Amino acid sequence: MRSMLYIVTFLAVIAAAFWAYHENYKTQAALGEAQQLRGQIADARARLAVLNAEWAYLNRPDRLRDLVDVNFDRLGLMPLQPEQFGRVDQIAYPRPPRLDITDPVDVTSAGADE
């Protein structure tokens, strides 16, 4: 009878150890997923901060003046005040030169001569 009690006790201890190991494994997996989600949230917040900084830079009212100051010599721009235009897309750019084509070129036979 005692040997039967020892066997049942031994099996109960083994079952409890297996259950504790299984619960510990599930807990570690959940903690790993939580850490991965924290990393993704931190990356998303960093990207959002960069986008917000870029958006704030692009929405500055004096940005057009800065662009003119930087590119004045290179592009030959005349002094321009941002107050002259409501938005950047309203700036009047010079029209491209008109090209008059007198003799149309046949592109299908251009490669056949070679």
Q: What would a concise description of this structure say?
A:
This protein has helices at 2-58, 63-75. The chain is mostly helical and 114 residues long.
Characterization of the model:
- Residues 110-114 have low confidence and may be disordered.
- The chain has helices spanning 2-58, 63-75.
- The protein has 2 helices and no strands.
- The protein is rod-shaped.
- It is mainly alpha-helical and 114 residues long.
Largest sheet: none
Q: Please tally the β strands and state the result.
A: 0
Radius of gyration: 37 Å
Which regions have little confidence, pLDDT < 50, spanning 5+ residues?
Answer: 110-114
Q: For the terminal residues, how far apart are their CA atoms?
A: 105 Å
User: What is the 3D shape?
Assistant: rod-shaped
Helix content: 55-70%
Mean pLDDT: 77
- Summed up, the helix count is 2
Strand content: under 5%
Run of helices and strands: HH
Summing up helix and strand content along with how strands pair, one would put the structural category as mainly alpha
What is the fold's blueprint, element by element?
Blueprint: H1 2-58, H2 63-75
Q: What key phrases describe this protein's structure?
A:
114 residues; mainly alpha; 2 helices; disordered C terminus
